Amino acid sequence: MLDHLTLQQKLSMVFTVDGGGTVGATPIPPGGLGSAGYLKSPTGLPALQIADAGLGLRNPSHIRPDGQAVELPSGLAVASTWSTDTARQGGSMIGGEAWHQGFNVLLAGGANLTRDPRGGRNFEYAGEDPLLTGKIVGATISGIQSQNVISTLKHYAMNDLETSRMTLSADIDNAAMRESDLLAFEIAVETGHPGAVMCAYNRVNDIYACENPYLLTTVLKDDWKYPGFVMSDWGGTRSSFRAALAGLDQESAGDSTDARQYFRDILPRDVQQGRVPISRVDDMARRIIRSMYAVGLVDHPHEIAPLDVAHDMLVSQQTEEKGAVLLKNQSNLLPLDRKARIAVIGGHADVGILSGGGSTQVDPIGAPPEGVVKGPGKKEWPGDPVYFPSSPLAFMREEAPSAHITFDSGTNITQAIEAAQKADVAVVFVTQYTFEGSDAPNSMRLDGNQDALVAAVAHANPHTVVVMETGDPILMPWLPDVGAVLEAWYPGSAGGHAIARLLYGTVAPSGHLPMTFPAAAAQLAHPDIAGDGADTVFQMQFRSDQEVIYDEGSEVGYRWFDRNHAQPLFPFGYGLTYTTFQNDGLHLVQRRHNILATFTVRNTGARAGIDVPQIYVRLPDGGGRRLAGWNTVTLAPGESKGISVPLDPRILARFDAKQGRWNVASGHYTIWLASSSGDNSDSKSFKIDGFHISH
Ligand code: BGC
After folding, report:
1. In this model, does residue 23 exceed pLDDT 70?
2. Nearest CA to ligand 1 atom 2
3. Domains in the chain: how many in total?
């Protein structure tokens, strides 16, 4: 195919135009469907219809009156399942919906690590651990691509904050980056084989990610042998030959978001004048064309068809049911008794559930694009929070038809107290809206009267359950006074149904936290995000003087907490269910580069459940413990199973940036068989014979 194209045709492939998906902003280009981006390919190749789809296909109802899409629960909920099968199933749902609506490149596959628990886009990603993130995001990508549409791993790399995201320099030592953020991307690439990778807005060690030769060429294309193409984030291209030579293959929506149309207006001249060799243009075009063939865009072009909404809603619901995390359950307050009188309070639980804002926002099914709750009238992009029409209250009434279940909005605390006093159990819904373009407040507190509401209700009724719909961890000053806490994240299109089934025990929660919930912001490596909370928070993303020095290196999240002996509110990996498990008999076997942990898991409770036994390691030279592997096991009451978990050798290694290889040192490693990163009940020391892993 490449041989049949002229130089001009090849150059036409490296610049996409705005797809016109932002209503009223840019017109839809001829041939486009009205989405994030569009490329009219040379004859013989399909046009690229590029759409956001981090959690579901964005905005199809803006495009076609009959267009709709199901949204998965947030990426954190998917990661909380610790199940690559669940992630793959969710990806395949999204990919299928896209294929049936004519889109073939999805901007889906966010793998940025949670370096700060206030990150505005954490909800799109998969938490703070490179192995978990890489495996989950890789599985999502592979699910999407199983439907013959390209998935785009993003935002490469170190785009871990929203504040100053367009300009911020994330500064970090290369070896530490390889052992943390880049390892997540590396594992996602090898697991999911994404057709495209999107470079990020920010700078990394002073050089913009989309013109950073270390990131794009040395690591991604040379070390990882990535054969696909790199596209810029929308507004992320800032030069022509510098970016092309660094490894950028396609400028995205350059007509509307970039200062100049670099790859359309300037690159041809750079090629003509010899600043960019023709072989590089060939490589750019080859990579784009290769992904089209490899993922199936050419051989399996889309077919417009109605969606199987009922099926897709079920996928979303099941993901939430596996991804919600039960954080506290004193005296088995949950599951709820079907006869108990319940006071449901707050969080708009009478009409729906919250979703995260920005380019992952999907139009709700069965409601106008602005959702079922009006206001508060936020002017800056992305506007007001959108609540999907999946009411937990309505589904709770379905689960317990004979129970007396009341609703109080929670706006008046005195009335909420009265409602709680009249009930056997109070269920308070709290919400935290996070969104692209800004980070959550430094304080990590719920906004409005919500903390006061929970405290007052808990005082009025000791049987208080809190259901959290949050994009990030929050502080819980009322935690000792409430009976149960369920972290539902942003629960997705069918979230109300899933929450009701979890509360009543039709299904048991089995999620485990993919990020640490700190007890105080002071425990963090960076207690404040500089500039966060400014008057025009959204504008902060454009401030040009920002730099964050990640001197904690690869000690992200729970690794940092472990190294500093800090006690979090809830540790990474933590999650309860309606039964109990006991794990023992940890043993380690090494055969050259293959290291296997074996042990036994037993369900010691009275109902079936899913356990997530986790293996952590501490390297002989110290540092925070690291997750090296895990398994998800379903067990009937009393059942036990022998489990073996392969440990990823890169987790046991230090990256030698000079030699460009991983070194597993010979020595004694502390190994934990644990139910979370804070569980110290079972640890042993094992001797491992060292080795190197080269690329
Ligand atoms: C976001 C990307 C998104 C793109 C296109 C950017 O602002 O950072 O995640 O895919 O817009 O909508």
Report:
1. no
2. 233
3. 3
